[in-house]
Amino acid sequence: MTLPFDRAATQGRIDNFWKLSASFGMERNAYHNYLNELVSDRYALIRGLQILRDELQLAADSQSDINACGADMSLPSVVTTLAYTNCGDRIHQGEATKRYRDVVASRFATLSEIGELKLEAFFPAGGGTDNGATLAHVTVAHELDEHLKQRVYAGNPQSISLVAIDLKTHVGRFRDGDKQVYGKTRESPWREPRDACGAIVGALNDYNQHNLIHRRIRDDLRERNFQYLANNKIFTDDGVDITMAIASAIVAVRGIRNTAMALTQEMDERGVAHLTASVTVNRPSRDDLVIYLARATVFNGMVRIQGLGTEAEKYGGRLVEYAKERRLQLWYGDWDSENLPVEEIPYVVRDSGL
Question: Is the sign of the CA dihedral 105, 107, 111, 116 positive or negative?
């Protein structure tokens, strides 16, 4: 007999999660953001639970001796699955993506029976999401088949599933003499500067209504933002054009909102979602940087979102001395980037039927 879901323990972890600090808008190295923001937050949501992410842990019904690997489902457990987006531009496929797989995916992605990471990987031009509802549906649908889900849920009234989704856009950056340039980068020291992200820069600078990617990015930005960013430039106090960095940020933040809301229609009462949004800053012949933008949770009838916003006119930024170089710090209106407000959106929970 399956005991009713004991949601109190998970709700307690959610509540504790939202007491944790987070720092948004600053260019930092990938390791810093992935460890101190994504991984630490995600572990806080599943602290004290047996983590089920290896296919061998789900092999208890196997007819071979491999069933000895099967997990003890009577323990409070969490099944984890991981999805991420990453622009298809090859310049966004290098060092930062490897760092992401090493630091984040290695801990939360499903592991195949031969030890390979199994991620839901989406590579839309522009990096946000092709469609938040599709991303949410595919990620949840692939996590567990119904028989295994029933075994996990029946094993312990505190057992849950964790859907982890990280949305990543990107923007180029390079030095032109004493000037720092955003929206372009070099693939190597001897290559000419080129647009990055090419899809976002192209949509804003040379919009083609017949280009489906341009139309999607325009929709992601929303019309007011599109018109503002296409016809105005946003500068730091010392004259650095950060328009394209802000456009990339808005696409990612819009993606986290759309995907979080779509997950409310996909997950059952034992589903927990943790989402993040970030911009990778591609630099020629140097490690990429990452700007952490937003985080969100979905559980127990409430979507909570914290991060930079989606109105282009409220964005600004400055270059600050950090790690022996000048790094970009984005801000949004008069919000404190170290203590941003948390938006709460209620929803109706789907019952697991167990």
Answer: positive
Q: Check whether 37 has a pLDDT greater than 90.
A: yes
Q: Hey, which bits of 256-288 come out as E strands?
A: 271-282
CA 89 – CA 282 distance, rounded (Å): 11
Q: What is the pLDDT of residue 79?
A: 97
Query: C-alpha angle with apex 245: 276 to 175, nearest 5 degrees?
Result: 125
Residue by residue, DSSP assigns 24-74 as -SBEEEHHHHIIIIIIHHHHHHTTTSEEE-BGGGG-TT-SSGGGGG---TT
pLDDT in tens, 240-264: 999 999 999 999 999 999 999 999 9
Q: Decide: 127 and 70 in contact? Cβ < 8 Å.
A: no
What's the length of the chain?
Answer: 354
Tokens representing residue 307 in the block: 């991060």
63: pLDDT strictly greater than 90: no
CA dist 161 and 118 (Å) reads 16
CA–CA gap between residue 57 and residue 111 (Å, rounded): 10
User: What are the pLDDT digits (tens) for 67-108?
Assistant: 899 899 999 999 999 999 999 888 888 777 889 999 999 999
Q: How far apart are CA 286 and CA 144, in angstroms?
A: 39
> What distance in Å separates the CA atoms of residue 25 and residue 260, rounded to the nearest whole number?
20
In whole angstroms, how far apart are CA 181 and each of 33, 94, 168?
Answer: 23, 20, 20
Q: What is the pLDDT of residue 353?
A: 65
Tokens at residue 255, please? 């993606």
Q: What is d(CA 65, CA 82) in angstroms, rounded to the nearest whole number? A: 29
- Which residue(s) pair with 50 in the sheet? 77
Contact between 248 and 170 under an 8 Å Cβ cutoff? The reply is yes
